[in-house]
Amino acid sequence: MLNVEGLTIRVGARAIVTDFSCTLEQGRITCLIGPSGCGKTSVLKWLAGILPPAITADGAITLDGQPIVRPHPDLAYQPQSDALFPWLSIAGNAALGLEMAGRSRKAARAEVVAHFGAFGLAGCEDLYPEQISGGMRQRAAFLRTIVQDSRFVLLDEPFSALDAVTRLRMQDWLCARLEASPRGVLMVTHDLHEATQMADRILVMSAGPGPLVADIPILTPRESRTEAALAETRTLLKSLLLET
Ligand SMILES: Nc1ncnc2c1ncn2[C@@H]1O[C@H](COP(=O)(O)OP(=O)(O)OP(=O)(O)O)[C@@H](O)[C@H]1O
């Protein structure tokens, strides 16, 4: 279990996040939503240990009750931008996390290339990032993150550049992967449909810096999440976002 307590993030004297707390459990998807600029990305960057030096933060983080130093191998992070290296092929980029974790280049490449079909990247193995579309780059970055062995995954709008059908496919792929290999996921999204379809719980941040506005468990099993079953939750989320 990953626990965050009392996280406050400041840019100079200005607080952008105040008193943020959450618990991530393995096998559960937590979606983080909130208005643009409320600090969602900053929270993920803090968790990943990559906040820029100009941004300061106070807060406690523990993994199974023990404080951890980040970057940490049990926390994989996919930034909002695809952040692919232009000089590496798509297969090379996707395999990078596994290589850094100690796999040989050949083994890492074989492991990621096995998913290229499901990710709509078949035939792109030896192309470079500038040769493929933004949606394809985002899928390669997602693959690089999700194949890692980390117990927790931090995803910042991982499907924002995808068309509607591809997005649904990737959502299904992620849910199936997590069932086969349970990990804790914290995913930022602006898409209420995505959040309610995928999440076990949804954390709502406020526009102004302040504690979470709401922490909403989604109890309906994923296979029963019809439009009707989720309508009430979506209405609640919309009204919370409008209020903030
Ligand atoms: N490097 C930085 N220097 C100065 N201010 C920053 C920096 N990074 C973020 N901020 C400010 O911190 C606040 C929170 O930004 P952040 O990107 O975390 O929000 P967000 O909720 O993820 O936004 P969005 O939904 O638009 O991606 C914003 O006011 C932003 O301008």
From TrEMBL:
Domain of life: Bacteria
Chain segments annotated as coiled-coil in the UniProt record: none
UniProt domain ABC transporter: residue ranges: 2-232
Annotated SMART domains: AAA
GO molecular function: ATP binding; ATP hydrolysis activity
Alphabetically ordered keywords of this record: ATP-binding, Nucleotide-binding, Transport
Membership in a protein family: Belongs to the ABC transporter superfamily.
Protein name in UniProt: ATP-binding cassette domain-containing protein
